[in-house]
Amino acid sequence: xxxxxxxxxxxxxxxxxxxxxxxxxxxxxxxxxxxxxxxxxxxxxxxxxxxxxxxxxxxxxxxxxxxxxxxxxxxxxxxxxxxxxxxxxxxxxxxxxxxxxxxxxxxxxxxxxxxxxxxxxxxxxxxxxxxxxxxxxxxxxxxxxxxxxxxxxxxxxxxxxxxxxxxxxxxxxxxxxxxxxxxxxxxxxxxxxxxxxxxxxxxxxxxxxxxxxxxxxxxxxxxxxxxxxxxxxxxxxxxxxxxxxxxxxxxxxxxxxxxxxxxxxxxxxxxxxxxxxxxxxxxxxxxxxxxxxxxxxxxxxxxxxxxxxxxxxxxxxxxxxxxxxxxxxxxxxxxxxxxxxxxxxxxxxxxxxxxxxxxxxxxxxxxxxxxxxxxxxxxxxxxxxxxxxxxxxxxxxxxxxxxxxxxx
Amino acid sequence: xxxxxxxxxxxxxxxxxxxxxxxxxxxxxxxxxxxxxxxxxxxxxxxxxxxxxxxxxxxxxxxxxxxxxxxxxxxxxxxxxxxxxxxxxxxxxxxxxxxxxxxxxxxxxxxxxxxxxxxxxxxxxxxxxxxxxxxxxxxxxxxxxxxxxxxxxxxxxxxxxxxxxxxxxxxxxxxxxxxxxxxxxxxxxxxxxxxxxxxxxxxxxxxxxxxxxxxxxxxxxxxxxxxxxxxxxxxxxxx
Lengths: 408, 239
Hints:
Structural class of chain A: alpha+beta
Strand order of the largest sheet of chain A: 5-6-13-8-10-9
Largest sheet of chain A: 6 strands, mixed, barrel
Shape of chain B: globular
Strand content of chain B: 25-35%
Largest interface: A-B, 21 and 24 residues
Oligomer: heterodimer
Helix content of chain A: 55-70%
Radius of gyration of chain A: 33 Å
Largest sheet of chain B: 6 strands, mixed
């Protein structure tokens, strides 16, 4: 007997009792929809993390003074002795380093003719734009010469531009940063947020300008910088790079061998990746929970198929009497169970699609529905039908035709 | 006759017994029946309930296997056949008519009649035409789209006969075919069976009604699992 014919009569059987079919499908529908939503959220999170990593660069190291703990006391990042521009130059001189920039940041109030905006000022070298793979969307970034001489120029992020110049036309305007006038020579391309930090909400100025006129100098270290952003050469292992840079810095800061360093290095990409793994584990857990509901739905299908076999015992007997083999009966009921689950799966996929979009819109979760996810969710439903339909179908196929015909 | 040679009769039973187990009691439904039915016969099997007539019907219908003894249908020994082969035999060689019609309630008459063709091992391309032809043969050419609920009992039984005929069987087995019908309709149904017999189909009817048995050219009476009387009736009632 052809499966197509079996599917047609299976549909007919399911439609003959639409309410029961629908209720039976409910478990499958919920299971498939939640499997799909969870997978879509997991996939969306993965994509978002990839994008974030791409936006910060996977071979960028950030070095900051201080360590999380020293001598049992916690200092936190940035609490140690700052670096200076000679350190930056030394790092830049390493063969494994493509570019390096010191940075010096501070809070600042930016004032335009019509508005003011509390934001962050970040003093950087021209190399900073290379390290961050960041360029001006409009205008230009400042040159190494401007950076070195502390020219009164600034490149501003989108959020800053939008708040200071709601009507646009920021390029070429003058703004004051805590009283220091600077000219906007460039508008940065959008970077979006990384963690809690909005990277579009900052004003980039030459490092020396930031130190001399805005953030201020350091009492103990001349020409100091807060952090060093380092672009490691492509193909160099990041662990090796950290070791090499770290060894050099220990020497420069005269740290005894064996003593703990008073600075630390981390890769933002690693940080994002680690957070992503946690999210991923969460997603897998949720998808697993959803799969359990799919199995519960399968038990419901098995139950109703057993009822159906009992109700239709006479029909089965008749079919056997007119020449149906055991295999034909098995196929018929198996196709019926699979059809039930497949239809439930289809509905579940549609609802799951909506759920994923809803989660993305309402919960702010990233969600991505791919054909792969749809395939997995739908395939899981069909598989459940096959697994849980088999037992009732086999029972039907093994009925004794004489007993079955006498059944009432 | 050597051991391997099948008997020439269309249906042959040799010392067939059937024993059922009911709790710890053994019920001997058939106690060694030997019987030949030739092609083209119209046989009525009669007897009180428990006499073994239904058991014999199930065996001839290849729905059951004997406890001992051997049976042949159309020259094939049933004991050597697998259950799939028995299913195919039922599909190709046998047609069944039941007392309760056993039609699928949600299907049209035409769809009911087509049902056996679905299980045919060789592909049937003209199923609709063949089913329609059979329905016309039983006088229901104008009721093909009706569901069983929309048909009278006699009409339903005629649909069932059409279903039994659709795969051109050599043998038609009818188990109390008129048990649920009134006298007039009984005559109608028996008329159709007589007509089919004239066209060469071997007909076996299990009945306890003597009016029905009147139509048969041979009556076999069962009692306690044995043949009591086996009589030819050359002047059988002709419809």
